[in-house]
Design a protein that fits this description.
Elements: E1 7-12, E2 27-28, E3 31-32, H1 33-42, E4 49-53, H2 57-65, H3 85-100, E5 106-109, H4 119-132, E6 136-142, E7 153-156, E8 159-162, E9 180-190, H5 191-195, E10 205-209, H6 220-229
Parallel strand pairs: 1-4, 1-5, 6-10
Antiparallel strand pairs: 2-3, 5-9, 6-9, 7-8
Amino acid sequence: MIEGLKVLAVIPARGGSKGVPLKNLREVGGSSIVELAARVSNSVSLIDKTIVSSDHEGIINAAISGGAEAPFIRPLNLSGDRVSDLEVLTHALLEVEKNDTMEYDLVVMLQPTSPLRTSQQVIDVIELLVKNNFDAVWTISETDIKFHPLKQLQIQGKNLTYFDEKGSDIIARQQLSKVYHRNGIAYAISRDCLVNQKSIKGNNTGFLICEGAAISIDTEDDLTKVNSLF
């Protein structure tokens, strides 16, 4: 709890990952990444309850080992690879509120695929949201300038084109402003943003820029890199 506001942490972890099968059960530093997410969440005193949203028994058990609760099994219609974070988080929030017969004011999403997160980063996004009355706060990382959107290309048929035609005007890197990408470490979102605005971003969103490594696991190579840093 922070300033009288109840905080629910949700760890979304379905079983149907395609790039790395059962990715959420893969280990970093000897523990599954879903268990690591649960441990970090439980180390944050501002969080009142940590739950896992999953359709897979093994993932649920691993999250419970890390200290998370599993008040429901995620329904199949919310377990596909085209299901949005908004749908998953809203379902989790409303299910927990029904079980607990109370409302939570803030939801924190902790994706297991970013296991390099620290408890302080989670604390910081919650405090930023509350102190600034944001709808949401996302953790972000600066994008390497070589991957700037105006340097990106796409293929249309047999032709190579700019992703954005403004890219044709770029001569030197000094012309490019900094850009950032979400790193999946933590999202803090108000209940109003989720339920009423029906968004995980909302109209008034803050940010926490994370320095250093912030690898989101999508491939076997990512897992190797994370293990070398853990």
